[in-house]
Specification:
By secondary structure, the protein is mostly helical. It contains 19 helices and no strands.
Length: 461
């Protein structure tokens, strides 16, 4: 179930808000959120609700076991590695089993190993990483093990951030599970963030996606230079407004129920270096890898060359996290090389250079075939006309929305800081804000009614 769907907007969300409002106390409110979160997940993946419940129980028991081990570091560490290993095995089986079989078959020179029909559970990467962060933090002593199974279940399964993040660390939300308030200003701010996120997703991202998908569906060898550049430009806008819009909706929904989630995007297309880009893009994932992979590997504490290796490994894993396909692996390697080069040279490519490198990365992210990537790169840099006229796919409406997307992904907010402050103002929502929110919501609903095209890139990550 997507947030930008009719069933969510008109049935699920009103029901959960009503049930939450009439629930008598915090425990009852948490129970309401847990039940609706499980229903939310079951609506999309009924058979895999058991897998998520298994993950919850598994990490709950290991968290208690690590805490009961007390000062016995050997036992605590053994339990931690066992828990992390089981989590990664579950994630690896459902997400990467056939991928590694494919690699094995290529090395063996034929279809020697039989593939399995394995459907990828929705949001498994997100909730597995959240569950592991909880257990690791218990081991580190940053928080105590949660004795209430239902509160831990709510943390892992909470529907606003269940299928697409942001990845919430347990110690950031522990107190909110036990004590929080939902005041009118927080609720209204939640509505504002949700409406803005809905507009990003439905009005801009879906329009970019429609044109980009049509172009990427063509035979690449017949795509001309202008069309190839248009496609990757449209996708650059699509993925930002798609994912940041969904994160805005998640943050807004959390505030409606009294939760504060971390910001997941900070205008990444304003970055002047690749390092800065990754501090602004998918912040919760970058933070997770820094805290739970980069620092445990030694970070920058074991010499220059070890630092470079650690950075490179982290970005290789980041690429693999995004999907079980070679293009994601190469995408991670690509960013690992760029990050290390920035460290080695001490030079930053500047805004234009950074955006060029990011756009090239999105081409690699979008096109699953390495041959397809090479063909498109050739067509982009060696001028050719192609067989398909650009006006068949890039309409005046697409151009207008693309121009709006370019302005709204950061430049307009940088030129007018007051606009950015107004967008994130939690205390004051005036008549102009209400008018803008209403217009965005109504237009988004009209678009959802008139079209069934409503893709979401990160839906199965």
């Amino acid at each position: 179930m997507l947030f930008s769907s009719q069933i969510f907007l008109w049935f699920f969300l009103p029901l959960v808000l009503l049930a939450y409002r009439i629930a008598p106390g915090l425990k009852a409110k948490n129970a309401v959120l847990l039940v609706f979160s499980l229903l939310f997940y079951a609506r999309g993946e009924p058979k895999y609700i058991i897998l998520m419940l298994l993950s919850i129980c598994l990490n709950y028991m290991f968290g208690l076991g690590i805490q009961r081990a007390g000062e016995n570091r050997r036992n605590r560490t053994a339990l931690l590695w066992m828990c992390v290993g089981i989590n990664l095995c579950l994630l690896g089986y459902f997400k990467y089993f056939n991928f590694f079989l494919q690699i094995g078959n290529r090395l063996l020179g034929g279809e020697v190993l039989a593939y399995r029909d394995i459907a990828l559970p929705i949001g498994i990467s997100f909730y597995t990483f959240q569950a592991m962060s909880y257990v690791i933090d218990v081991w580190k002593g940053e928080n105590k093990a949660q004795k209430n199974l239902w509160d831990l279940a709510l943390y892992i399964s909470f529907f606003p951030q269940l299928i697409a993040g942001p990845i919430v660390k347990y110690h950031d939300i522990e107190k909110q599970l036990a004590e929080r308030k939902t005041d009118l200003s927080g609720f209204c701010y939640g509505i504002k963030r949700f409406c803005y996120g809905l507009g990003k997703k439905v009005i801009i991202s879906n329009s970019m996606a429609l044109a980009a998908d049509q172009i990427y569906g063509l035979p690449f060898q017949h795509v001309g230079t202008a069309l190839a550049w248009s496609a990757v430009g449209l996708y650059t806008l699509q993925i930002y407004f798609d994912f940041s819009g969904y994160s805005d909706m998640a943050i807004g929904l959390g505030r409606m129920f009294g939760f504060r989630f971390m910001e997941n995007f900070n205008y990444p297309y304003l970055s002047k270096s690749i390092t800065e880009f990754w501090r602004r893009w998918h912040i919760s994932l970058s933070t997770w890898f820094r805290v739970y992979v980069y620092i445990p590997l030694g970070g920058n504490r074991k010499g220059v060359y070890r630092t470079y290796l650690n950075l490179f490994l982290v970005f290789c894993l980041t690429g693999l996290w995004h999907g079980a396909a070679l293009n994601f692996v190469f995408w991670g390697i690509y960013y690992g090389i760029l990050i290390v080069l920035e460290r080695v040279t001490g030079k930053k490519p500047g805004w234009l250079g950074t955006m060029f490198l990011v756009v090239m990365g999105w081409l690699m992210f979008r096109v699953t075939s390495m041959r397809g990537i090479l063909i498109l790169l050739k067509n982009m840099f060696i001028p050719c006309a192609g067989l398909y006229p650009i006006e068949l796919y890039i309409t005046p409406k697409t151009l207008l929305l693309a121009a709006a997307g370019i302005l709204l992904c950061g430049p307009l907010q940088a030129l007018f800081p007051g606009l950015k402050k107004r967008l994130f103002d939690e205390e004051y929502i005036g008549v102009p804000d209400i008018a803008v929110m209403s217009a965005i919501f109504l237009y988004s609903v009209l678009l959802l009614i008139s079209s069934t095209y409503n893709p979401f890139i990160y839906f199965r990550f």
